[in-house]
Design brief:
Order of helices and strands: HEHEHEHEHEEEEEHEE
CATH topology of one domain: Glutaconate Coenzyme A-transferase
Number of helices: 6
Distance between the termini: 57 Å
Helix content: 10-25%
CATH superfamily of one domain: Glutaconate Coenzyme A-transferase
Number of strands: 11
Radius of gyration: 18 Å
Largest sheet: 8 strands, mixed
CATH class of one domain: Alpha Beta
Shape: globular
Length: 233
Amino acid sequence: MSGFDKVVGSYEEALAGLTDGMTIIAGGFGLCGIPEGLIARIKQMGTRDLTVVSNNAGVDGFGLGLLLEDRQIKKMIASYVGENALFEQQLLSGELEVELTPQGTLAEKMRAGGAGIPAFFTATGYGTPVGEGKEVREFNGRNYILEPSITGDFAIVKGWKADRFGNVIYRHTAQNFNPMAATAGKITVVEVEEIVEPGELDPSQIHTPGIYVNRVIQGRFEKRIEQRTVRQG
C-alpha cells in the first residue's frame, strides 16, 4: 500500500512542477484557513505571471499579499479586495488584472470545475456589470447568466488533519473555500497541522477524500487574526 502514501517531506517537493504562467486555486477566507507555508514557498520560488483564484488576497505582507509585493500575480479572480491596500492599489492602477466574482458564484465555479461541469446558470449578477457579455437564459420566468467553471494547474489547500492517503479534515470555519478548491486542481497540495496513519480518521468526519489529493505536507502556522476586536475593561 506504500504507493498510496502522499506525504512529502519538503515544500520544494510539495510544489514541484509549479512554473510561470500557471493558474493556482487557493483555499482560505481572509486569513482563516490559508495555506500560508505553501504561499511562502511560492514567494521564495519567485514564480511569476500567475493567475490566482481565491476569495481575496490576504493582507499586506501576509498570505497571498506576499505574492503581490513582487508582482508575481498577473491576474486575481476573487470576491473582494478585503484588507489588502496593495491589492487595491494595483487594481486601481491597472497593474493587476482583477476579475471580481460574487462569492457564491466563485465557490460554485470551483465546485463545478472539480465535478467536471464546464459551466452553469445562475441568477446572481444578472443585470449588473458581472453579467455583461454573458449568455442569458430564462427559466421559470427568471433570467440567469451562464458562468464558466474554474480549474487550476495547482490547488493549494489548508487542512487540520490528514492521513497518509490524503484524506483531509478541516477545522470549523477553516473549511470555507478549501473543500471546493481541493477538487479543482490538476495537482492538489494540502498543508495540514497533523498527519496521522490511515484508519485513524473517522470516515464520517472526512471532508475531502484522498482521491482528490496528490501531495500532503505537515506545516507550522502563525494563525494571525485579521481584525482583533476586544471588549473594553
